[in-house]
Amino acid sequence: MARDVSDTTPIGARSELVEWIASGEKPRESWRLGTEHEKVPFYKADLSPVPYDGAKGIRALLEGMQERTGWAPIMEDGHPIGLADDRDGGAISLEPGGQFELSGAPLANLHDTARETAQHLADVKAVGEKLGVGFLTLGMSPLWTRAETPVMPKARYRIMTNYMPKVGSLGLDMMYRTSTVQVNMDYASEADMVKKLRVSLALQPIATAIFANSPFTDGRPNGYLSMRSNIWLDTDRNRTGMMAFAFEDGFGYERYVDWALDVPMYFVKRDATYHDVAGASFRDLFAGKLAQMPGERATRSDWANHVSTLFPEVRLKRYLEMRGADVGNLEHIVALSAFWTGILYDEAALDGAWELVKAWSAEQREQLRADVPKLALKASIAGRSAQDVARDALALSRAGLARRACLDEAGRDETWHLAYAEEIVTSGRTQAEHLLERYHGAWSGSVKPAFSEYVF
Fold first, then answer.
1. Nearest CA among 135, 139, 98, 131 for reference residue 120
2. Which end of the chain, N or C, is more open, meaning fewer C-beta atoms within 10 Å of its C-beta?
3. d(Cα 323, Cα 347) in Å, to the nearest integer?
4. Could you give the CA distance from residue 81 to residue 330 in angstroms, rounded to a whole number?
5. Mind listing the GO molecular function terms for this protein (predicted)?
6. Exposed/middle/buried for 9, CB within 10 Å: 0-12, 13-18, 19+?
7. What is the reported pLDDT for 7?
């Protein structure tokens, strides 16, 4: 995320936490979609990672983007760590290993998303060209070890880096070596949120399968089609996963708040200082009993920042975040947003998607989630292949997008943005499998050609 929230209003009751989420409700005519994607930068001359400092480092890249776009810098301890578009709401931020992220503005349709993403990519390519920097379209850094990966100067990442090895074996790989694409979606009411959350949780492994694109680690195949997705299985089980409780009777805002309250914190931010309280309870901060900060009480910004450190497959804030997919090229990025927009923003498609998944048990959903990183579309659930389920889900999405009837300047509706995903599902071959074919064939056992063939 581009920056942590600053709102010092004290929280006086648990109901205020519930109201904070409920305040995200919007009427259908105000629904928007916000697409985020990360990408790994590298030096074209020698395929090495790009550090923060230096005449041609990440800082220089940010400064070049600021000059090109006019966006306002986001600073931390004198370091630019992002840019904010204060007019339209977009932002650029840095992930821990230098992954360059666009957090897109809330937009009305997928045509706008495609234009926004294309413009951003044109900008970073133009700035990157002057610095000799390119950007990979893979869901995981394919060549460098974790030790070779640079570290960005952000205090929250230092806290997370210290904490991650205490709660899982792969959290540092998640932070420093993976890249994702996600889309953020609105809801109209608590009931609408619950329905969308359940459908998107159940189908999130299907999205992971369709968009699997991270088969290499440390210069060789890692045994997975989406290693990025596999990494999340051993990152921090307290804050990740499929949230089986979301399918229980009575689930709603309050139940999500209670779960979030029990997820250990990373930090408390006061003014510009991040206080390391990793592992501590938000309930203690809420009650003024946090051992590391005696007498300090929770504020709205504490809650917003804490919720941003929860990483389930679908995250609820004041909107829903679809978190299951590896990043890919421009068509890949927009297709992910198209997949979810067609399903979640059309009532008939949403109803159809619920019919598709409602009979699945928690155990079946968990098994699919565990199998997809390695098998992708060849995984199965309830006697059906993930490919067959994906085909049905895409048909629902296509019909939903057609009913939205949002036309571009050429008179096309939004369905054409699904073509990339439909080609994958029809063939049954993911982008990761194409990469592996190249590795074992034309690339002669090297991942280095990816730095010229799979770039933005």
1. 135
2. N
3. 22
4. 24
5. glutamate-cysteine ligase activity
6. exposed
7. 83
- Indicate the SS3 state at residue 324: strand
Give the pairing type, strands 100-103 and 91-94: antiparallel
Question: Can you give the pLDDT at residue 56?
Answer: 98
Q: How far apart are CA 197 and CA 308, in angstroms?
A: 17
Residues in the chain predicted with pLDDT less than 70, given as ranges, are 1-6
Give 73-98 pLDDT, tens digit per residue: 999 999 999 999 999 999 999 999 99
Closest CA relative to residue 36, chosen from 100, 101, 116, 97 = 101
Distance in angstroms (rounded) separating the CA atoms of residues 5 and 303? 9
For the stretch 266-286, pLDDT in tens is 999 999 999 999 999 999 999
Hey, what amino acid is at 439? Y
For 225-296, list the strands marked E by DSSP.
Answer: 240-241, 267-270, 273-276
The helix, strand and coil proportions of the chain, stated in percent and rounded to the nearest 5, come to 45, 15, 35
| DSSP category for residue 50 | P
Query: Torsion angle, CA of 20/21/22/27, rounded to 10 degrees?
Result: 120
